Amino acid sequence: MPLYEHVFLARQDISAQQVEGLVQEFRTIIEGRGGTIGKTEYWGLKGLTFRIKKNRKAHFSLMNIDAPPAVVAELERQMRLSTDVIRFLTVRVDEHEAGPSPMMRRADRDERDGRGDRFDRGDRSDRGDRRGPRRDRDRDRDRDFGAREAPAVIEDIEVAVAPETGEDD
Asked: What is the model's pTM?
């Protein structure tokens, strides 16, 4: 049977246990039709590059599937019907990777290095003198483009007004 790697994204407002429930639901669909799932991985709640169906984050899950194409088509149909699944991708592969996927290896490496979340950079207020003194923007603009001149005052404006004749038209 053909081998597939299947990744799906679930809505951000469901819990990790509900995502595991979805995986179990999809497992029953696959195994009920003669396929098998080799490995499942929950990659966690991650931020999306752009919003998908009003979600800024999503739960990512991977399944290694060994099943006929009709089973995968049925799985994808069920995912389209599910309101909890916002995106999915199925890729046919020659063989499944032994061991953890690259996403799991990256998470393990970050934990070992003590990096944690890559956006956690701590207090950045100790920049020292790297920033230099603040610039006076008005002074720099005047230096580059010349000082501003006050607008000329218009004096002695005459307004032409039609004289009133006192007659009604």
From this structure: 0.61
- Which residues are CB-contacts of 129 (< 8 A; sequence separation ≥ 6)? none
Given a contact cutoff of 8 angstroms between Cβ atoms, the answer to whether 7 and 60 are in contact is yes
Q: In this structure, are residues 60 and 102 in contact, taking their beta carbons and an 8 Å threshold?
A: no
Structure confidence by residue, pLDDT tens digits, 40-81: 999 889 999 999 999 999 999 999 999 999 999 999 999 999
Half-sphere exposure of 160 (CA within 13 A, CB side): 0
Strands in 85-93's sheet, in edge-to-edge order, are: 36-52, 55-66, 3-10, 85-93
**How many C-alpha atoms does 91 have within 13 Å on its Cβ side?**
9
